[in-house]
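HOLO CASE FILE
Compound: zinc ion
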Amino acid sequence: MKAVAVRPGNPNSVHMVDAPMPKVSDIPDGRGVLVKVLKVGVDATDKEINEAKYGNAPEGCNYLIIGHEVFGLVQEVGPAVKHVKPGDYVTLTVRRPGNSIYDIIGTNDMTSESTYYERGINLRHGFMTEYVVDDLEFVVPMPKGLKHMHILAEPMSCAAKAIHQAYEAQRRLKVWRPKVAYVLGVGQIGLLATLVLRLRGIEVYSCARSPKGTINSKIVEGLGAHYVSTRETSLADLAAKVGKADLIIECTGSSASAFGAMEVLGLNGALVWTSVTGGQAKTEVPSDKINLDWVLGNKLLLGSVNGNREHFEMGIRYLSQGDLMYPGVMQQILTTPVRGLDNYQEMMRLLVEGKSLKVFLEVAEG
Ligand code: BGC
Ligand code: ZN
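Model generated. Tokens follow.
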């Protein structure tokens, strides 16, 4: 079976491998679900993995099959599987449990172990192949009516978790009704976070460098949010105009922006960092000023990674509601399909070129 892999540690090593065909019986206790892969999305993490800045192969293997955003069709299930059947559309979660208490209770996204297992990213093979098999716990049904959103389920799980975490943590305030949110970065996570915040009735300012007119800015406006070009209006100017934010979701991929965001958060606010920055960048910040403001303002900083099954289910509900509220808007994220596993080089070229909002591979029809 064809699969697209990298050799971690070697930059630009993306290549095709011949991987063994998985079977339902690979998973014990009749809990296996065999899925035919239809589509696989790629993002900045895949780019960093191919640049050898991030990611590790499974133990004893010299390659890592990439791909962690998957949409597929159930082919066959073991006798213990009741929640999906052959012919159903599904997505798969990314993390696989370690041994901490958080892993054991199904919240492997919150593992307290420093080693984490992620399909297509760290120590576990991914989904950029023809068939995958997994335990029923990690297979999440996708409604037929959301087929056109396919691989957005995984990035949406990350956006849904980031915002849900902020609400969970802000219970410290007894009452928290954020009115103004900033989303920094309008890549897929920024756009999906914008949707979630709009569905929660919040006034959203989604910020990025480009002037208005990009597809990203049109999607922001299609969701009833305000697009802000930071080349024209700095965050400080925005805060002076509309007030500091009650909630900021930072997803630019730039650690300088993550720290910069600390200066525009309002009193009792929450700042959520979601960017995975595998580089070595350093940045200078007005630390005395920030420290003082944050103490006097009871502000909260939260890091958020990944999403567990609950966040996938939550995210799929947001996608469904979003499709009803803003018909035709979210699917505009899916700009750049590449057909067939054989065209993986073209897929990587488009990803590295960085001009496309979303590159994804169409592996099979279905
Ligand atoms: C993935 C997450 C993962 C994170 C860190 C992201 O690109 O979407 O599922 O947890 O990278 O590896
Ligand atoms: Zn990702």
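CASE NOTES: The mean pLDDT is 97. Residues 157-303 form a domain with the Rossmann fold fold (CATH 3.40.50.720).
CLOSED: yes
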